Amino acid sequence: MSEGEQSDDTLRLHVSVGDVTVEVEGTVDEAETWFEALREDYLTNIDSNEGQPSNSSSATNSDGSGSQVKTDGSQKKSRTLAEFYQMVEDISKRDTALLTGWYLENQEGLSTFTKDDLRQKAKSAKLTLGKNVSRDLSNQIADGNLAEDGDQDGDQAYYVTLTGEEYIEEELLGY
Length: 175
Hints:
2 domains, three-stranded antiparallel beta sheet, 38% helix, 7 strands, 6 helices
């Protein structure tokens, strides 16, 4: 392949060993190059048996749900919304709404979501949102965790901001 051509093959490597996580995404060559450099910098002091790469990489299925795809083509199951919810101690109702929106984006592949999307997903996961979801979403917007993105079928659409993703992944889920 010449320099100007781009490959449609994107590789996402995500390796966690102990407290260290290395994640790289890009073309196969770029991802492998960056991963090797990061591995040398951050994973060199890890026991060699403990640091063996798993036989899987993250992917998004055609239906938009997140999963793990092994290199032999078979799939591992991904976490459900209820499982992510259980990972968080003493989660507030407004953070439950934020976590549900994050799940819709990161695990189900939605680019935006509505209050109705949140309610349906929370209900299917048997989670309880606050009685005033509009207020909870407004507070998350004020905190910089959510942003509005116009209308979607006549309802206000939202998306989780980078600040919101960091809050969920670092503060709530402890990644």
